[in-house]
Amino acid sequence: MEDLAAILVVEDDTLIQALVEEALSEGGFEIVISSSGENAAELLGAADAKFLALVTDIDLGRDGLDGWEVARRAREINPTFPVVYMSGSSAEDWASKGVPNSIMLAKPFAPAQLVTAVAQLLNAAPPPAPEK
Question: In angstroms, what CA-CA distances link 44 with 9, 18, 73, 81?
Answer without folding.
Answer: 11, 21, 8, 11
